[in-house]
Design goal:
With about 400 residues, this protein is mainly beta. It has a single domain, classed as Methylamine Dehydrogenase, Chain H. It has a four-stranded antiparallel β-sheet with strand order 3-2-1-32. The chain has a four-stranded antiparallel β-sheet with strand order 4-5-6-7, with no helix packed on it. A four-stranded antiparallel β-sheet has the order 8-9-10-11, with no helix packed on it. About 50% of the residues are buried.
Length: about 400
C-alpha cells in the first residue's frame, strides 16, 4: 500500500479524526451515479459489460474510473462516495479499494463493485507476496491473509491474525508461512515481530521508532522503515540498518524480486511541517548497508516504483521519471512524463502519481485531468487518457496470473 507522509506534531487523535472526516466526505453521489449510468448505457458497460483487458483503476472525488489498460480510455465510472484508495488485489481481474468502512473488492475487468468486503475501521496497507494478499486494518490491528486466485468465485477463505494492539501497521506472509508484522499502539510504533505458521513468535526487534511501510527484495528479504533507518529480515535474522543522519526517516519502500536492494524515501528534518526531500535511500539487504542518492528534485510519497529489471524509479517534481541503477545509485536516464508540480500540504490532495506494471509506467496529471502511459525502455508516451474530474490514485490488476 502507498504510505502516508509524516505530518509534524499532529496528535494521533486529531489525525484520525481528520482522516475519518475526509474519508467519509461525499460529493454529488447521486449526480455521479446518474452520470455513470449514462456512460454505461452509451458504452455498453454494466450488465453484460465487455471484459476490460488489463484494467486500471483511478480514483476521483465520488468514484473510480475503470480504464482500458492499453488505450487508457474510460470504460466506466463506478460511483463510490468518500475518499478511497486503490491497490492491486493480487489477480488479473480485481482491485482492492480502501473505503471508510473497510476493504472492498472492485471487479475491474467487469467494471463493477463486488459484494466482497473486509470490514474494519481505517483500512491500511495491502501487500502481495508469494501468491498471497495481506490486508492490515489499522483501527482493529487485524491482519487478513488470503489467496486472491479465488476472488472471482466470491469471498475467499481468510487466515486471520490479531495484533496485540491496533496501530498503523503492515504485514507480509513469506513463502514458508512466516508472518512479518509490525509492533505498536495507536500512540507509539516501535518495531516488528516474526511469527511461524502457528503464529508463535520466532523473533522480534523493537529498535525501530515509528515503524512504517514494507518492501520485499530478492530472496525474500523484507525491509521495514524506521525514523532512524530500516529493519531487514532475512534468513531468520532481523538486522538494523542505521540512517547516516541522526534523524533519517524511511516510510515508503519499493522492492523487486530481481534486486537485493530496496528503494526508499528519505527525510531528515524532524521539525518540517511537510518535508520535500531530494534524496532517496537504497538499502542493500545482503550487505545491510544504506546509500543516499541526491536527485536534484523533490518527490512525494506516491513517486516511488520499480521497473521490470529491478530499476529504481522516482517521479520528481520536475515532471520526469528518474531511472536509477540500484547497484551503484547512478541515474541512468530521466524520462519526461508531466509538467513541473509541487507536493500539496494535504496528503489526501491529488498530485502526480507513478504506478508501474510490466515495462509501462502510468503517471497521473491531476491539474490537466490526464493520465499517461510511458514505455520505460524508449521513454515514449504510448497512450494518454482524459478525465472529466481530477484523478487521484492509480492502480490496476497484476499481470500474468
Amino acid at each position: 500500500m502507498i504510505d502516508r507522509p509524516r505530518i509534524r506534531k499532529a496528535s494521533v487523535a486529531s489525525a484520525v479524526l481528520l482522516s475519518s472526516v475526509l474519508i467519509a466526505a461525499c460529493g454529488g453521489e447521486d449526480k455521479e451515479a446518474d452520470s455513470a449510468k449514462a456512460n454505461s448505457e452509451r458504452s455498453g458497460a454494466g450488465k453484460g459489460a465487455a471484459h476490460v483487458e488489463k484494467p486500471l483503476a483511478v480514483t476521483y472525488d465520488g468514484g473510480i474510473y475503470v480504464l482500458d489498460g492499453e488505450s487508457l480510455k474510460v470504460a466506466k465510472k463506478v460511483p463510490l462516495k468518500g475518499y478511497n484508495r486503490v491497490n492491486p488485489a493480487g489477480d488479473d481481474d480485481h482491485v482492492m479499494v480502501s473505503t471508510s468502512e473497510g476493504f472492498r473488492v472492485l471487479d475491474a475487468a467487469q467494471q463493477k463493485m463486488t459484494d466482497i468486503e473486509f470490514k474494519g475501521a481505517e483500512p491500511g496497507h495491502v501487500v502481495q507476496h508469494a501468491g498471497k494478499t495481506v490486508l492490515f486494518t489499522d483501527g482493529t490491528g487485524e491482519v487478513r491473509i488470503f489467496d486472491p486466485a479465488g476472488l472471482g468465485k466470491g469471498k475467499p477463505e481468510v487466515d486471520t491474525y490479531k495484533s496485540p494492539s491496533p496501530h498503523h501497521g503492515v504485514a507480509v506472509e513469506l513463502e514458508n508461512g512466516e508472518l512479518v508484522t509490525t509492533l505498536g499502539t495507536a500512540k507509539k510504533r516501535k518495531g516488528i515481530a516474526v511469527l511461524d505458521e502457528e503464529r508463535k513468535e520466532i523473533t522480534r526487534n523493537e529498535k525501530c521508532p515509528e515503524v512504517h511501510g514494507e518492501a520485499a527484495a530478492k530472496d525474500e528479504a523484507v525491509v521495514i522503515g524506521c525514523e532512524d533507518g530500516a529493519l531487514v529480515y532475512k534468513d531468520g535474522r532481523i538486522s538494523k540498518v542505521d540512517s547516516p543522519t541522526a534523524y533519517g526517516r524511511i516510510g515508503n519502500q519499493r522492492g523487486s524480486e530481481k534486486s537485493s536492494i530496496v528503494l526508499g524515501d528519505y527525510k531528515k528534518d524532524p521539525d518540517a511541517e511537510l518535508e520535500r526531500p531530494e534524496q532517496v535511500s537504497l538499502i542493500d539487504t545482503e550487505k545491510r548497508t544504506m546509500k543516499l542518492v541526491d536527485l536534484g528534485t523533490s518527490y512525494s510519497f506516491q513517486s516511488l516504483a520499480r521497473g521490470p529489471e529491478g530499476e529504481a524509479l522516482v517521479l520528481g517534481t520536475d515532471g520526469r521519471i528518474h531511472v536509477l541503477d540500484p547497484d551503484n545509485g547512478k541515474v541512468t536516464k530521466s524520462l519526461p512524463a508531466v509538467g513541473k508540480w509541487r507536493e500539496p500540504m494535504d496528503w489526501q490532495q491529488a498530485r502526480p502519481q507513478l504506478w508501474v506494471r510490466g515495462d509501462t509506467a502510468y503517471v497521473t496529471d491531476p491539474e490537466k485531468k490526464k493520465i499517461h502511459a510511458v514505455d520505460l525502455a524508449s521513454g515514449k508516451k504510448t497512450a494518454t487518457g482524459t478525465f472529466d474530474r481530477k484523478p487521484g490514485e492509480v492502480s490496476g490488476v497484476l499481470p500474468d496470473h
